[in-house]
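Researcher: Re-running this chain for the archive, since the previous output was lost when a drive failed. Same request as before.
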Amino acid sequence: MNIPSELAIDIAENSHVLAIAEFAYDGTLISYNRGFRILFAIFLSETNNWHEFFVGAPRVTQIIDLDSDPQLLKTTKGEGLLCSFRKMESSFYCIAEILELKDEKLIEEISSLSNLMAQLNFQLRREKRQLIKAHKDIEKIAREDPLTSLLNRRAFFDIMNPRLSLAKRQNMEITLFFIDLDFFKSVNDNWGHNIGDKLLVAIASMLKKTLRLEDVISRFGGEEFVVVLTGQSLTDSFTLANRILENCRALKIASMDRVNTLSIGITQWDKNEDINKLIQRADDACYMAKNSGRNKYIALSPETATSH
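Model: Regenerated structure tokens:
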């Protein structure tokens, strides 16, 4: 049975605890340990509802204070157990402590097993929490760019393949920006890689603030970023691209006295093509923007190219 960690600590510290059971507030028995099964075998064989289990007490649904004085219970092994109750959020626990039993060997065996189970349960729950945290940390490392905290290239493809399938089924528009930081090598050469890293982090932060929560932003490699918009018209995409260019020019990085600019390639998804072809066309548009003066965007489709 699963025992709450705070309860497991109390039980582990009490060598007299023999039997443990969890009840719903309507009196239904949820789970129990081996000691409880042995001591209350008759009840377990006859019923799964335990109103009669509480000797001299009103129905469980009428018990208001489960932290009141513990009650003496009769067992299949005779009298001599002290039963107390612990309230939890959706259930309560019945904990039986040994007062007087004739079979000392049985007492010792079951008590030892109960304590061991409680300790192991507590340890397993703690290790499970640690494993869950470790799994989340590993997943984060595998999917997140360590510098900017954006999606990395691998995570981008993991997200986009099912997103394109959904967009095709629902006939949604997909627009992709391929963004490249202009003259980034000169930043590293003139101000150092530390300042270059700060600039990349600032651009990532600017993109997060400029874009919607549902938009996909990825650091694709080096000074390259990819943005995917869902349900945006090409006209709205051009407006957004201009805003990104303006916000980049407004960035201020300590110790660096230069205006930072971007080149952006924009394209819309043809529902018959895969993500790699979409990225390649946006990359080609970005290359055209760089070769035609930088600090601009070019929108490229299989038929036309538009420069701004």
